[in-house]
């Protein structure tokens, strides 16, 4: 293990931890705390004084897990800024261990996993059991997610207002029904490219999604334009010219 990794891990976890061992002597405990605070203050200054971009971002932080980075981020405002700037600078970030991420970020309200093809139902279940305060979730192009993963997620994260499921090909009407029933505050749904959805999906949203104000269903070939026409006064809908229309026959005017 590199010395940078060991150093940051020990420091970040000790600073983020809120539990402390009970000491028999109050005076001794106070003296130890004072010494720890002095050492920590010096150490913080020394660590933050290192060049962020040339040293910390290239030789220290890449060796830490996402969990360790978030522990370090909790220390103070300066560390938060340093970690945030590091994340912004990353061209590639490995989030394959969703369990590690969700366990460290229990207060998450916004989570973007768009394009994470490795995400399965197990990952969604892990998020569901840890991130109760989730309000925004983007799982666009996560083609391995099914209705079962959605079911567990929405019943544990009922504060969600936005779910993006573009090209989640295994999503069915049942999954959408679970979303709108379990999450009464849902306002935006992105279902583009979910070809298993039918007109029944629109009916379910209309009946149970009382607060849904924006719906995207482009490239859902089994949803007819007629069903979308019926809800256009209540919900803002994107309509794709490629959407099949079984029940809708537009008027044709012939000029003779």
UniProtKB/TrEMBL annotation:
Record's keyword terms, sorted: Ubl conjugation pathway
One CC-aspect GO term: cytoplasm
SUPFAM superfamilies cross-referenced by the UniProt entry: RNI-like
Alphabetical list of SMART domains matching this protein: LRR_CC
Highest taxon listed in the record's lineage: Eukaryota
Domain F-box/LRR-repeat protein 15-like leucin rich repeat per the UniProt entry, residue ranges: 74-229
UniProt keyword DNA damage, yes or no: no
Keyword Calcium on entry: no
Name under which the protein is recorded: FBXL2_20
Organism the protein comes from: Acanthosepion pharaonis (Pharaoh cuttlefish)
Species lineage: Eukaryota, Metazoa, Spiralia, Lophotrochozoa, Mollusca
